[in-house]
TrEMBL record:
Source organism of this protein record: Cupriavidus metallidurans (strain ATCC 43123 / DSM 2839 / NBRC 102507 / CH34)
Protein name as catalogued: Oxidoreductase nodN-like, MaoC-like domain protein
Keyword Lyase included in the entry's annotation: yes
Pfam families in the cross-refs: MaoC_dehydratas
Keywords in alphabetical order: Lyase, Plasmid
Length: 152
């Protein structure tokens, strides 16, 4: 884990090699919990028997929005921010769900800081290129630009 304790430390990370999280298992229990919380109970996510018979994936798959929400978990495995006063999610640009995440798959985050904008003294907006990758898959499950605003 890399500690980024100041605006300067974050800015120094621009165009550095990608930070890669550990793998996170997205099991059926997690998918079912997400379905209950969001109300998205489509059979391709929550019915393993039907998904095995009818889905092109041969099993249930994680929701795209569940995959997107795992960005935070992966990010906190890569970076810590001692001295940071506050951080807010500013949103995402160009989110694409480019591959399925089968139930039980291992997913990891890959982060590259592309750009940093000064918002006001001690506050920056970071543009992170993010991929959520499924182990042994050629394509990422999700790719996006994540905007994160931080105040030190």
């Amino acid at each position: 884990m890399q500690a980024l304790s100041s605006v300067e430390a974050v800015k120094a990370l621009r165009d550095a090699p990608a930070a890669v999280s550990d793998y996170i298992v997205l099991d059926q229990e997690t998918i079912d919990t997400f379905a209950r919380l969001t109300g998205d109970r489509q059979w391709i996510h929550v019915d393993p028997v039907r998904a095995a018979a009818e889905s092109p994936f041969g099993c249930t798959i994680a929701h795209g929005l569940l995959t997107l929400s795992m960005v935070t978990t992966a990010f906190t495995q890569c970076f810590s921010f001692p001295g940071r006063k506050m951080s807010v999610n500013y949103g995402f640009d160009k989110v694409r769900f480019t591959g399925a995440v089968p139930a039980g798959a291992r997913l990891r985050g890959v982060f590259v800081l592309q750009r940093v904008e000064d918002v006001r003294p001690g506050e920056i907006r970071c543009f992170w290129q993010v991929e959520m990758q499924v182990e042994n898959s050629e394509r990422p499950a999700m790719a996006a630009t994540w905007l994160l605003q931080m105040r030190y």
